[in-house]
Amino acid sequence: MAAARLHLLPVAAAAAEAGAQGLDWLTAAECRRLQAITSASRRDTFLAGHWQARALAAQWLRLDVGRVALDAQADGRPLLRVDGDAAPLHLSLSHSGGWLALALADAPVGVDIELPRRVRDWNALARFVFSPEECRRVDAAGDALCAEVFHALWTLKEARGKRSGEGLQPRAARAVTAQPADAANAEALGWAFGEGALALALAPGTRLERADGVPGTPAYWRFSSAAGDPRERD
Q1: Residue 10's beta-bridge partner residues?
Q2: pTM higher than 0.85, yes or no?
Q3: Which domains does the chain have, with CATH numbers?
Q4: What keywords does the record list, in alphabetical order (predicted)?
Q5: pLDDT of 126-143, one tens digit each?
Q6: Which of 75, 84, 111, 196 is the most buried (most CB within 10 A)?
């Protein structure tokens, strides 16, 4: 059975740990990307994610962290390397509101965290990427729970797109519905977090063996084809 680990970390603390290592651990490509980032907060997020990816992968693989590097797959997903070769681990990263979410697994994985910075028209955003059934759930939630339901479903969409490598494509996203599931048949887990949500999409049959810093008990989900023709909503 495949295994996964999920880590939730404050960006500030993770960036401080990364900064204590100097910058020699970055690849030339990462150095170029870092130099192009002018925002201090974005630099911190970049360093936090790239260092923690190495450190936590090395911990899992029981290797010296200096042997682990971070690259990118052709579809843009992060790629871990050990001594230059692709590592036997999949990685996904997400950040929002000063928090870093990092998932590792020995099968494809996707993670997303969303902490809203302002109130938006959640129903209008839902119609852009949600299936008709999911839109009805957001509509039915009412003003008090609308944002909570929206973010639970949005993070599931994002995590699924990261797991597959297709990203969040509106037309494809509208053709899929997240359905509640039992733990044995789940391919995604979701948590309420702050004013937003956190979601983890796993390959079917993957077991979450660690969830460091993640609050509460997850809700379990599976993905199914949406009813109706998504072209009707273009």
Answers
A1: 99
A2: yes
A3: 3-233 (3.90.470.20)
A4: Transferase
A5: 999 999 999 999 999 988
A6: 111
